[in-house]
Structures are given as C-alpha cells and as structure tokens.
Amino acid sequence: MTATQIIALAIFVAVIAVIVSEKLHRAACALIGAMLLVLIGILEPKEALGFIDFNTIGVLIGMMMFVAVVKNSGLFEFLAVKSAKIAKGNPWRIMIAFMIITAVLSAFLDNVTTVLLIGPMTFSICQKLELNPVPFLMTQIISSNVGGTATLIGDPPNIMLGSAADISFLQFVMYDGPIVLITMVATIFAFKFIYKKGLSVSPEKMELIMQMDEGEMIKDRILFIKSVIMIFLVALAFLLHDTLELKTSIIALSCAALMIMIGGQDVEETVHDVEWPTIVFFAFLFIVVGGLEKVGLIHMLAETLINATGTHYVVLMIVILWVSAICSAVLDNIPFVATLIPLILTMEAEGIDVWPLWWAVSIGACFGGNGTIIGASANVVLTGIAGRRGYPITFVQFLKIGAPMMLLSIVLATGYLLVLFGGYWD
Predict the structure, then answer these.
(1) Alpha carbon 221 to chain centroid distance?
(2) DSSP class of residue 374?
(3) Residue 332: its pLDDT value, please?
(4) Angle separating helix axes 276-294 and 3-21, nearest 10 degrees
(5) Which residues neighbour 199 within 8 Å (Cβ) at sequence distance 6 or greater?
(6) Apex CA 257: angle with CA 166 and CA 114, to 5°?
(7) 328 and which of 66, 195, 198, 333 could share a cystine (Cβ 3.0–4.6 Å)?
(8) pLDDT in tens, 323-360
(9) 360 contacts 318 by C-beta, under 8 angstroms
(10) Distance between the two ends of the chain, CA-based, in angstroms?
C-alpha cells in the first residue's frame, strides 16, 4: 500500500470508529473526514463534490418534507387507535396490528419517522392496558427494519443502492418484497412464542381501548383527506418512475413541493423538520468513501474478493449477504453500504454480472440492522424514547431479542437468494 492509500484508509477507519463510539455526532465525523481528504490533497474540492450522490440526498430531503406536512393531519395516530379497536383491545392482536402498520409505513416512509409516529401511541395504549410497552416497542423496531427493506424509499441503504445501480421502485418490490413478507410472517410467529404469555389483561382494560375515539386523533380533517390521496399518488409515482423517465429524487421533491403547496402548513416549520444532520452526514460520508475509491483501495478489495471466490459467484453472493448483515448489526448500515457500492461497481467493471449481489447487500444491510441496539437509526431513536419514559432497554436486553431475529431473517434470506439466483451464473 502507498502512503496515500494508508492515509485515506486511516481517515475512513477513524471516522467509522468515532461514529461507533458516539463520542461525536456522526455528521461532524463525516464532515471532518471529508475535509481532511481535501486539505491533505487526496481529493480536489470539485472532485469531492462529484462523489456525492445527489439523487439519494434529494429523495431523503423530499420524503422528510412530505412526512413533515402529513404528520400534522393526525393520520398516523388515527391508524394506531383504529387498529387497536379493530383488535378489540386484545394486547396480542394490537401487537400484531402495530407490527403490520409499522412495516407498511416503513416501506414508504423513513424508518425513524415511522417509529416516532407510532411510538407515542404505543405508550398511550399500553398505559391504558397497564402493560410494559417494551415488548411492543421491540416488535415495532424489528418490523420497521424488515418492512423498510421492501421498497426503494423504505430504508436509506435501498435509496443508495437504487441510485447507484439504477434499480427501480418496482424492482425493489418484486425482488425484496417476497422475502419481506416471508420474514414478517416468521417474525410474528416468533414473537408469539416470545411474548404472548405476558400479554393477558382483564376485559375491563380492553374496554378502555374500545372507548377511545379515533376521530379525535384527526387534527386537520382537510389535510387528512389530502394526505391520504397524496400518499397513494406518491406510491404510484414511484412505481411508474421508470415509465415517466424521472429520477426518484425529482419525484420525491416534486411530491414534497405539492404537499407543501396544498397542505397549508408553515413552510419554515416544514423545512425545520428535515433531519439536516442526517443529510449532512450522507453528503460528506459519500466523500469519505470517495477517498478510498480515488486511491484505489476499493479496487484492491474487489480484486481480493474476486480472487478468493473465483468463479463461485453464488458463494460470493451469500458471503456478501452475511457480511452485510453482521457488519450492519454492529456498524451503521449507511457507511457500510456506501463502501460496498463502489466495490460492486468495480466488480461489474471486471466483467462480473453483479445483479444478484445488489439484492444480497440490500437484504443483508436492512435485516442486519435488527442485530443490535446500534444497528439502525430506528433502534437508537425508539430505545432512547423508551429510556426517557422510564422503560430503559439495555444493549444486552436488545441483543437477546434482536440478534436471534436477525439470524432468523438472514437464514430465510439465504434460502430465498439461493432459490432466486442459485443457477443465475450457470
């Protein structure tokens, strides 16, 4: 390795290490790493900007602004109360209903936004039932990471992969959707075994849930109707983005602009609700990974993987699936995927048909986020809220549930990918 390669690698490792340690905000870590690469001269300023995937940034900003308007309608609270009443106040049925709602919403909204919207209603309903909310929160965290795998916009790694590999919204639904459904069914049965015995309550407490009025959850009825219509239109636009020949960022930003225009909400408040630290983190992380690509380290890693697996590409696919899952369980899956993207593009340049590898990364990185409390942003956010509400979830507590659920999902995913692509390279 040359001195330049060693420096670029050292900066990347240092950035990841500080992110994992949580000693400094991850946006600041990425910014410092990117600026070091520019100041040292490894990257020219214009070159550094060229590594930023502005399509990914656009999708994130657009969807965050869209949700910032929609949430003021009370739509999500309405769904939570309505589903609890449909479940007749039965705690186990409510748990299943909230898992399904969380998974579906996570397929179309940011995972963190979903758990932030469903979480408060969970505490309210559990308070009425006099139940510990932790089992409900754990099932929602797992469901958010599984459900987010199903679509292009459901989880940041998928947004990044879709942009880099030009994968459409419909293709994500076709390839990731089936394993998400299989895993959700398996997850529900697993949680029935884990939690159901501790979810019995008296008929009187169940009646308290039935007395809740979902109509009172609607804060703005006109905005509520507009939000429902717009969510369907957004989903349709993403499904047709290939036919429309529009980038996903253009669709997300256009729908956000339309929602702001018809929503009648405060624009400054809407813009303020965007998670700008996350946007900054993404932008500068692309530059940090770009440094590795510029000095040739990504190419070296790609060659090492190719040489290690030879022409056994099915083995390579399964290795990438499991490595993606394990690494995403202990690292934020965003920097990990940002590193893998140029690696797979390099393999493609070497003449390998990498189509199945994209799906191995997508499924592995998204499912892997369930492994530990730091594996995905939704985990950190919802467990943090639980702690502030007086229900702390420790790293070990989360690990006892999250790790087995992650392993179950990856075993299922291994079988799924072998069925789907086992003879792909023959």
Answers:
(1) 30
(2) T
(3) 66
(4) 150
(5) 91, 92, 95, 131, 135
(6) 70
(7) 333
(8) 889 888 876 677 778 888 888 998 898 888 999 999 99
(9) yes
(10) 36
Q: Measured between alpha carbons, how far is 326 from 288 in angstroms, rounded to an integer?
A: 22
Residue 376 to residue 335: CA distance in whole angstroms: 11
* Distance (Å) of CA 234 to CA 88, 101, 230, 293, 301: 32, 18, 6, 35, 39
pLDDT at 36: 96
What Å distances lie between residue 200 and 5, 94, 224, CA to CA? 59, 12, 34
- In angstroms, the Cα distances linking 406 to 146, 186, 326, 382 are 10, 11, 9, 18
Q: Which residues of the chain have pLDDT under 70?
A: 331-332
- Rounded Cα gap, residues 289 and 12, in angstroms: 7
Annotate 236-270 with DSSP letters as a single string: HHHHTHHHHT--HHHHHHHHHHHHHHHH---HHHH
Q: Which of 406, 375, 395, 368 is nearest to 187 (CA)?
A: 406
Contacts of 164 (CB under 8 A, 6+ apart): 53, 341, 345
Across 338-362, b (16+ Cβ under 10 Å) vs e yields bbbbbbbbbbbeeebebebbbbbbb
Instruction: Give the C-alpha separation, 118 to 121, whole Å.
Output: 6
> How far does Cα 345 stand from its chain's mean position?
22
pTM over 0.85: no
The tokens describing 171, both together, are: 């293709």
